[in-house]
Design a protein that fits this description.
253 residues; alpha/beta; six-stranded mixed sheet; 10 helices; 12 strands
Length: 253
């Protein structure tokens, strides 16, 4: 059996403070997947959650009590549950498609990877759509194949990029200049950096179960082409053991 992390990245901005990319697992996941049919999620994806690695503990190690902003790549439970371990939930941004899917009924929401209890807690938040942010061209960054981007902070230090195929409304975050060079946080558009290098996407059966297989393959192909053209950009996938060791990940932008 292999272990996969549920990666979270903390970005530090000199003006806007701390920005969290995704929130990982949290205590609410266990509660949300106790009843049936939500328990099916646990059966299909066995989860080992250590409270010593919860989101507040990881942030505390970095001297952060709570982030100033949260960007959710998509609303699968392993990317959002940790949000509700925070004492105070800051403003949250995600895609309009993801927000609209929160209106799905119980079984449809489970099929979309967001158990009803998590769905309802998310719906209670004043979520902001990334599409409401200033739109900009991705051509200067060599990302024109992905369409247009959205300027998360208004200074082009963090650019939201649509990466459809996995879940609903999946959106990555491109960071052109950071303390660790250019970084592209791609969530689950790639399962591991090694798979991107070897051109090995997940099996089609898995892709169909977790979203739109054709859209996933299109995003994967675009990411691979981008990687081959700009290998110096660090591409970070949320469940990649190379990207997320069992320690906190922090980037200054």
């Amino acid at each position: 059996m292999r272990r996969f992390p549920a990666g979270v990245a903390l970005l530090r901005h000199p003006v806007h403070g701390t920005i969290l990319f995704d929130a990982g697992y949290g205590a609410l996941f266990n509660q949300a997947t106790k009843p049936f049919p939500e328990r099916i999620y646990r059966w299909l994806t066995p989860v080992s959650f250590n409270a010593n690695y919860n989101l507040p503990s990881q942030l505390q190690k970095l001297g952060v009590s709570a982030p100033d902003l949260v960007f959710l790549s998509h609303l699968h439970a392993d990317h959002v549950a940790g949000l509700f371990d925070l004492n105070t939930i800051p403003p949250v941004i995600t895609s309009q498609t993801a927000i609209e899917k929160l209106n799905a009924k119980r079984l449809a929401s489970l099929q979309a990877g967001c158990p009803a209890m998590l769905r309802d807690r998310l719906k209670a938040l004043p979520l902001k759509a990334v599409e409401s942010l200033p739109q900009l061209s991705l051509q200067p960054y060599g990302l024109q194949a992905f369409g247009s981007g959205y300027d998360l902070l208004g200074d082009q230090t963090a650019i939201a990029v649509s990466l459809p195929g996995h879940g609903f409304g999946q959106t990555g975050l491109f960071l052109p200049k950071t303390s660790k060079g250019a970084i592209f946080l791609v969530a689950d558009a790639v399962w591991s950096f090694q798979s991107l290098q070897r051109n090995l996407p997940p099996p089609k059966f898995t892709l169909h179960r977790l979203g739109n297989a054709a859209a996933f393959m299109d995003s994967f192909a675009k990411l691979r082409a981008f990687h081959l053209a700009q290998p110096e950009v660090k591409i970070i996938a949320s469940h990649c053991t190379e990207s997320y060791p069992l320690s906190s990940s922090e980037v200054k932008i």
